[in-house]
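Input chain follows. Return structure tokens only.
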Amino acid sequence: MALKTTNKVDAKPSAQPSLNPEEQELARKRAERTVVESELAERELRSANLRAELGAFEQQYLHFVGSRYAELDELRAGIAERVALEQPANVRAQEAASQARENAQETKAAAGDKAAAPPRAFESSPEMKRLYRDVAKRIHPDLTSDRDDRARRQMLMAEANEAYQRGDEAGLVKILTEYEWSPDQVQGEGAGAELVRVIRGISQARGRLAEIEAELQALLRSELYQLKTRVDQAQADGRDVLKEMIDKVEDQIAQAKRRLETVAPASR
């Protein structure tokens, strides 16, 4: 009797290598870190935008309005000093002159140099925003637990903020490129060690998110922001509030000049 032979082979699908619990947790934490890093980059961008916009508005205000207040306070100081000169025994006049001169010096220092070129409003292109996000995602100091790397990242992030406010796209690209190709970025091996680094990175990023939120709320409550909001709203309604302020101060300056002439000490 002939024996029947078969070529049937028990075929089993090739099983994918399973991840151990530590590796599974690492995968989950890496995904979580990606989400947190993206949120942090967006929040940093919002904060950087707000700081830059307020800084540009403050410079505009000081240049166009603050400089005129400095002129007004200088005239008021001159008036008070002439009154004090005419009334040397009047203690109140002497104190008023001293206070007026101090106010004039403070206003002049705050206003800066009127002869400087008029400041420009802050504007950021979509490309600048994209670059800033990339930089924040990659080099933010709160995304590392290594002390030396954190210090370097803090320095680079400060440079990135300055470049962003200047509108320097090439500067942002240079910062990111140099950091990405740094030998210091070579990572160690081992799921356990990597998991610890990722968890700490997530914790640090969430801490920074809380700090940024506090900073944003402080900026939004500031007098400067409230003034900018009023100016922006008025501009949307067709009013130029800064010009109105300038006209008002210039009227006060004209009055102060006339007053100064009336209190000019008599020639001796």
